[in-house]
Amino acid sequence: MKEKIIGLTDGNNFFASCEILMNPALKNKPVCVLSNNDGCIIARSYEAKKIGIKMGMPYFMAKREFPQATYLSANFGLYHDISMRMMQILKNYTDKLDIYSIDEAFLDLTGCDKIFGISFVELAKTIQKDIENNLGLSVSVGIANSKTLAKLAAQKAKDKRIFYYVIEKHLIKNEIENIPIEEIWGIGHNIAHSLRAKGVFYADEILLKDDNFYKINYGKKGLELKYELEGKSVIPLTGIMEKPKSIQRTRAFPKFSQEKQYITSELAIHLHSVCKKLRENALETCFISVMLRTKDFRVFGREMKLNFYTNSELQLVKYIKILFESIYKEGIIYRAAGVYAGGLRDIETSQISLFEDKYSDKTKSISTVMDKLEDKYGKGIIKLGHI
Predict the structure, then answer these.
(1) Cα angle at 18 between 375 and 336, to 5 degrees?
(2) Which of 199, 252, 288, 373 is the most exposed place for a label (fewest CB within 10 A)?
(3) Minimal CA–CA distance to 327: which of 287, 297, 293?
């Protein structure tokens, strides 16, 4: 049986890198991305890390201690769009792709050295350069004989700032020597605590225990961990990305506002982003809600269950307006708004509803055209307008 060759592509400081990509003036400057409510740091550029800004640091504290940094509210719609472009580039190398997170994907590269006529070291470098040249995004690429080792290789690429790294099978023991078990993909706090209690502290020590040790103490998952570290690919690439159970878009306003039209314009943007995500995943919703967050962080929300399913913003906009009107208060200053879609169903397995909106087919067709225009000319080329 031919040995598997697995790659992992991982975005470097992904959220911050996306913001820098959209605003080149931020390049080589300390940049931090904030959580939905601007509460804490969720991403940092290398320059922000260098001056001492920590992940999860409260915004008010970071702003006080590091006023020279730029702090930006997260724009998850932007990050998703850039992620999808990155995944399309990766599909040029293999059709066996597992999207692990918004900025990570495993690739089955078995035989690709023969197909492209280059070594796996050169292939890792080629993938990294391809994304950098065509997307302007920095990624790290790790290649090894298993998912677990590919994940480790990608981390080594990040740590060494060379952005590509290959763990060769005959060097596995050297590559995992003296690496704390907590740094190995798949080993959580509880398992790490248990392994330490049994005298296993470093990754290379995992290989010293026999199979029965893992069968008895950790079952199938424990045995898979050992095999993966030995360079045996036992965690398969399915090529299937699990569809989301719900979709939410929330973002702090660039400026606080009490203006109704401004807030509804932001809600319209969020609604379009949610619906586009639904269409990309061939999903429909029957449950929506609207959230408003005030300047002093009070949150108001209202939800609604529909008697039909849809993924068209043109159908949902009137219901979003009803929800908004029920919670908006004149004179209140707001800092953020959001739209949530739940109760999702798969279009491919769904049945036609008796309560389907009579304009359903028409609005869905228009929404599809909107998506195609954005894909061709860029995000924001066509907008829903304020509610």
Answers:
(1) 90
(2) 199
(3) 293
Non-local (6+) Cβ contacts of 322 within 8 A are 304
Residues marked as catalytic: 104
Report which DSSP code applies to 102. T
Give the type of residue at 370. Answer: M
What's the confidence (pLDDT) of residue 355? Answer: 44
Q: Which helix (H) or strand (E) holds 97?
A: strand 97-101
Q: Look at residue 182 in the predicted model and tell me its pLDDT.
A: 92
Tell me the two tokens of residue 177: 């020597």
List the structure tokens of 140: 């790290």
32 contact partners, CB below 8 Å, separation of at least 6: 16, 41, 43, 44, 45, 48, 53, 62, 69, 70, 71, 72
Query: What is the distance between the alpha carbons of residues 128 and 217, in angstroms, rounded to a whole number?
Result: 39
pLDDT digits (tens, 9 = 90+) for 250-283: 888 888 999 999 999 999 999 999 999 999 888 9
Indicate if the alpha-carbon torsion angle 257, 261, 266, 267 is positive or negative.
Answer: positive
Alpha-carbon gap, residue 202 to 177, rounded angstroms:
7
Which of 59, 41, 129 lies closest to 93 in space, CA to CA?
A: 129
Paired residues of 197 in beta bridges: none
* pLDDT tens-place string over residues 339-361: 999 989 988 654 444 444 544 55
DSSP character for 2? P
Predicted pLDDT of residue 350? 46
Residue 202 — very low, low, confident or very high, per pLDDT cuts 50/70/90? very high
The pLDDT tens digits for 281-290 are 889 999 999 9
Report phi then psi at 180, rounded to 5: -55, 140
What is the 3 state secondary structure string of 259-325? CHHHHHHHHHHHHHHHHHHHHHCCEEEEEEEEEEEECCCCEEEEEEEEEEEECCHHHHHHHHHHHHH
Provide long-range contacts, Cβ within 8 A and 24+ apart, for 318-322. 319/288, 320/267, 320/268, 320/271, 320/288, 320/290, 320/387, 321/264, 321/387
